[in-house]
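Exercise 7b. Backbone tokens:
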């Protein structure tokens, strides 16, 4: 079992990195605004434009710093400096995912800006921060 504090990492992201969350929200709103309706069944209509918007807004380059802060808050130590690309940062059809493999386990921070409905469609949702520790 990991000694990492997921709650502390989540709180760090929510309170100290509101600027990044606001930027993710703005990009997610822009992406959803391009759809013909309130939802889409096409994951590529979410992930690809979201990644493009995040890159243009400079958010992709900021996400490794968010990961570093979350790891510090959780009580972990990174083995290497993260970069704004896999395996550290990935933009999925739900939102950005930040991953760190640590000596004490694995920390995964998800900035979920979209949700998947029961029928497999993507909808814009309030951006939520989840942190998993394994």
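Sequence design result:
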């Amino acid at each position: 079992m990991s000694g990492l504090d997921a709650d502390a990492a989540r709180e760090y992201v929510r309170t100290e990195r509101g600027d990044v969350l606001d930027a993710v929200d703005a990009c997610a709103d822009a992406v959803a605004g391009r759809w013909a309706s309130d939802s889409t069944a096409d994951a590529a209509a979410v992930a690809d434009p979201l990644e493009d918007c995040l890159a243009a807004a400079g958010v992709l380059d900021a996400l490794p710093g968010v990961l570093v802060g979350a790891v510090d808050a959780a009580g972990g130590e990174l083995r290497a400096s993260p970069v704004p690309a896999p395996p550290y940062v990935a933009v999925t059809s739900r939102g950005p995912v930040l991953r760190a493999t640590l000596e004490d386990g694995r920390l995964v921070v998800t900035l979920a800006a979209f949700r998947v409905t029961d029928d497999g469609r993507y909808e814009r949702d309030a951006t939520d921060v989840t942190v998993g520790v394994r």
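Instructor comment: The CA atoms of residues 65 and 71 lie 10 Å apart. The chain has one domain: 6-133.
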